[in-house]
Structures are given as C-alpha cells and as structure tokens.
Design goal:
Structural class: mainly alpha
Distance between the termini: 30 Å
Organism: Anaerocolumna jejuensis DSM 15929
GO molecular function: DNA binding; DNA-binding transcription factor activity
Strand order of the largest sheet: 1-2
Number of strands: 2
Order of helices and strands: HEHHEHHHHHHHHHH
Strand content: under 5%
InterPro entries: RNA_pol_sigma70, RNA_pol_sigma70_r2, RNA_pol_sigma_r2, RNA_pol_sigma_r3/r4-like, Sigma-70_RNA_pol_init_factors, WH-like_DNA-bd_sf
Protein name: RNA polymerase primary sigma factor
Pfam families: Sigma70_r2 (PF04542)
Radius of gyration: 28 Å
Helix content: 55-70%
C-alpha cells in the first residue's frame, strides 16, 4: 500500500477508534496509532486539528490557526487542493467516507420522519371523533376552570374533552423529531390528565392554561428525549460492532491467522470483558481463534 493510501486508511481507523471511545482520544494515543508512519510534529498538528474540527475531543490539544482552517473548510480551498498533488498533511479535508456516512444517516432520518407523518388508521379515527366534540367558548372555559378548582368531579370529563384539540395542536409542533404524531398525542394526553389531577388539588397557579400546556409539552419532550437516547445508544453499538469486525480482519492479515480474544482486545485497546460484550451483541459475530495465549 502506498504511503498516501496508508495514511488515509489510518485516518479512517483513528476515526473508528474515536467513535468506539465516545469521540475522545489523547494526543499520545493518536501518535501511537500512527506510530510506524514517521510523521512530523507539523503533520500531527494537522491531524489533531482535523479531528477536533470533526467534533473529536483530542485530550491535551490546544486549538490553533490550523484548527480554524479545518473548521472553516472553505469550498474554494477544497477545489484548489484537489487540483494539486497534496502532501499527507494537506489531505486532511473532511473525509469523504465520514461525510457519506453522515449523509446516509440524514437520509435514514428523513425516511423515518416521512414514515412517521403517515397517519395510522387509529389516529385518523381519533381525529375524526374529535371533530364531533363541541368547542368551548371563553365563557364556558372560565366556568370549567372555576369548577375544577372547586374540585367538582362532574365537570372533569368535559374539561379534558375541550382540551384534547390543544394537545393535537402542540403535538404537531414536535413532529419530525423521531416520534410519531400518534405517540406524541398519546403522551400529550397523559400529560393533560396529570395536569387536570393537579388542578384538583390546592396547588396555587397563576395561569391554569399555561400550566396545562406546560404539562403537555413536558410529556412530549420526555418521550422525544427517551427515543433520542435509545437511538444514540443503538447507533453507538452498531459503530462498535463494525469497528471490532474490521479490526478482527486487520489483525488476521497481520498475524496470518485469526486472533484470539486476548490479542484482539489488546489490538483495539479495550478490556476483554467489554470486547466479549460487543461480540455477543453482534448478530453475525466476529471470527476469533479459540486459542487463548
């Protein structure tokens, strides 16, 4: 493999290592990964700057003018660099494969959001049923609020009923954030019920309407947050499995045989316990030698 190709391949590996380690690497750790390439301090400065611009935390690195160059990454400079034969340190424009992966993830998110916008049959029926609910005017709303604060159970059903359309209105503001409209409405309705129960207590409130809407919004934001946390965790696991599988193949090439757990753990710089956990989460598994040195 030519030096230029090897450098690009090593850079990709470093990005994979960073992802596995929570987007964080030390300067010495990076130098160890590039150890056999004999790079200069100036070249390492470009590497550190590139990684920092790619949102990787490089422990110990102090951002310089070089970082600003990678952060700005003007289009004109990229085109100029492409027309010349770049040196290794000049090739550290945002990596094509990283940009491609990011674009693929955005496309997946767009497709997911598009699917979420397709109303289910249940939701269509629910929305149609709500059309039959008589809208409350300001006078009725005032009387309902007063009755609720006086803890009259007879008005609770009507009070909830007239606020259901507001839940839908708020839910539409939170669309395209990883949760279906149906689920947003469901969580918002739960928030509405909780708010109403609180209104039936002696809680002092300055504005009942803002209080109710706040409960509804909080319920929706909570499910969006929980869904986002779950998606991020799933993507992190996928990245780790992909990295371990690739590392296993690279190790096999170097050793001329399949490595064992101990060798692979040392190769990717994680504990054997963590490595086993990652392998167990992989559907296809990772080929390893059963022999343990």
């Amino acid at each position: 493999m030519e030096g230029k190709d090897k450098f690009q391949e090593m850079l990709k590996d470093v990005l994979e290592v960073a992802r596995v380690q929570g987007n964080e690497l030390g300067m010495n750790e990076i130098k160890e990964l590039f150890g056999d390439m004999g790079l200069s301090e100036e070249q390492y400065e470009h590497i550190f700057a590139y990684l920092a611009a790619a949102h990787i935390t490089v422990k110990g690195y102090v951002k310089t003018k070089v970082f600003e160059e990678y952060k700005e990454a003007p289009r004109e400079k990229e085109e100029e660099d492409q027309s010349q034969e770049p040196a290794a340190e000049e090739e550290l424009q945002p990596a094509d494969d990283v940009a491609l992966q990011e674009e693929e993830r955005k496309e997946q998110l767009r497709e997911k959001n598009s699917a979420q916008n397709v109303d289910s049959q249940y939701l269509k029926m629910y929305l149609k049923d709500l059309e039959a609910v008589k809208e409350a005017d300001e006078a009725e709303l005032t009387l309902l609020f007063q009755a609720v604060r006086e803890k009259k159970d007879s008005v609770k059903e009507r009070f909830i009923e007239v606020h259901l359309p507001k839940v839908i209105e708020i839910a539409k503001l939170y669309q395209n954030r990883g949760v279906t409209l149906e689920d947003l409405i469901q969580e918002g309705n739960i928030g509405l019920l909780c708010a109403v129960e609180t209104l039936y207590t002696d809680t002092v409130l300055e504005n009942e309407t803002e209080f109710i809407e706040g409960y509804v919004r909080n319920s929706m934001e909570q499910i969006i947050y929980e869904n986002g946390e779950s998606s991020s965790f799933e993507q992190e696991i996928i990245d780790k499995i992909s990295y371990i599988r690739k590392a296993s193949e690279n190790l096999k090439e170097e050793l001329g045989r399949e490595g064992n757990i101990h060798e692979l753990a040392r190769y990717v710089k994680i504990s054997e316990e963590e490595l086993i956990d990652i392998i167990n989460m992989s559907v296809d598994g990772v080929k390893l030698s059963k022999k343990h040195d």
